[in-house]
Specification:
Blueprint lengths: L1 H140 L3 H143 L12 E4 L3 E7 L8 E24 L2 E21 L5 E5 L2 E7 L2
Antiparallel strand pairs: 1-2, 2-6, 3-4, 5-6
């Protein structure tokens, strides 16, 4: 019987040890889960910081690209305007050349026509003089040869005068024509110089404005780039400081949680060790107490009017092994024990199993309702309440 009790004590101690191990494993599992959650949260914070940094860099790239595109479009507009102005200058120059050649051709035509008109008029005058001279000669021939010589001399003098007058007119016409050509050429050259000067001024002004605008754009872009870089660095600095603060906070929280868990774990271990020692002492003490060595069942029956109350002193570890059945006026209480023992002799092992049953039957005065059996365990006393019919 003592061997059986020792076996039960060992089983109880094994259960306590297993429960203690389960609690320790559970605490270790909780600590591992907290570590995993901490690592995940730290990784999420790093990912958020990297994502925010990447988004800021991309936004800066987009802003710079948009600014460059805007400046490129403006430069293309200036180049297109310069091309239009150059073409306009070429068109004006071509128009002036065309006008000059037209005027020069008109003056040449006028000069040639003037020469033709003078020649025609002189021919008419000469023909008229010749006709008059012929008529005069014919008239004079009738009078005397001397008159003929005088007439011929006068005719020659008059012809010389007409020739000189014609030469003078030709010279005057040529001189006037040359002067007009010089005036037109001078006007054309002046206009060309004016257009060239205006064109050069326009080009110089455009180049000056373009240079000023380019320098302003470069300075503006440098300022914008510097501002964006400074802002970007400031954002990175703030994010880095925020991340470091979050990291320190998470680390402190994690350390505090681990410290609290360690403290609680140590406290629980101490409590478990203490309770294990107490349970061990309790088991050792129970092994020496006759209360925990039931050899017979001695129940007490009390009639409480509407029901019967059956009480029985039973150790706590055997309360589940006690069963009561009621049938009419008969009561039956049964305590069932199962024992298992292993022994070893040399290389051989022996496994002994047996079952012990203690029972008690008795009668009561009135019929009972077997469906109303209720049990309760308190202070080492197992009680059953059975209603009457």
């Amino acid at each position: 019987m003592k061997t059986t009790l020792d076996q039960q004590n060992r089983e109880y101690l094994n259960k306590l040890t297993e429960a203690q191990r389960n609690i320790i494993a559970k605490k270790e599992n909780e600590i591992e889960k907290i570590d995993v959650l901490y690592d995940k949260k730290l990784e999420n914070v790093k990912k958020e910081g990297d994502l925010a940094l990447y988004n800021q860099v991309e936004l800066n790239k987009v802003d710079i690209e948009n600014s460059l595109l805007s400046k490129q479009e403006r430069l293309e507009k200036i180049q297109a305007q310069h091309k239009v102005n150059t073409q306009k200058f070429v068109d004006q120059e071509q128009a002036l050349k065309s006008d000059y050649f037209e005027r020069y051709e008109d003056l040449t035509n006028q000069h040639e026509q003037s020469i033709i008109d003078v020649n025609t008029r002189n021919q008419l005058i000469n023909r008229d003089i010749v006709d008059k001279s012929n008529r005069t000669i014919k008239d004079i021939q009738k009078n005397s040869e001397l008159g003929v010589q005088d007439v011929l001399f006068d005719t020659k003098i008059r012809a010389d005068e007409l020739s000189r007058d014609l030469d003078s007119k030709f010279i005057t016409i040529n001189r006037a024509h040359d002067n007009q050509v010089k005036v037109v050429s001078s006007q054309h050259d002046t206009q060309l110089e004016e257009i060239q000067r205006n064109h050069n001024q326009t080009i110089d002004e455009l180049q000056r404005k373009n240079s000023i605008d380019r320098n302003q754009r470069i300075a503006s872009e440098k300022h914008i780039t510097k501002s964006e870089v400074d802002h970007h660095n400031e954002v990175l600095k703030q994010k880095r400081l925020s991340f470091e603060q979050k990291y320190r906070t998470l680390e402190q929280d994690h350390t505090e949680i681990l410290n609290r868990l360690k403290t609680k774990f140590d406290t629980d271990i101490k409590k478990l060790v203490g309770s294990y020692a107490q349970a061990k002492d309790l088991v050792a003490n129970k092994a020496q107490d006759d209360f925990y060595h039931i050899t017979k069942l001695e129940p007490t029956i009390v009639d409480q009017g509407k029901h019967y109350l059956v009480t029985l002193p039973v150790p706590e570890f055997e309360k589940e092994q006690v069963n009561l059945t009621a049938q009419e006026r008969n009561l039956n209480i049964v305590l069932t024990r199962k024992f298992q023992e292993e022994t070893q002799a040399g290389d051989e092992k022996f496994d002994t199993r047996r079952t012990e049953v203690l029972s008690k039957n008795f009668k009561v005065a009135e019929i009972m309702d077997p469906r109303t059996v209720k049990s309760n365990y308190q202070d080492g006393i197992l009680s059953f309440q059975i209603a009457k019919l």
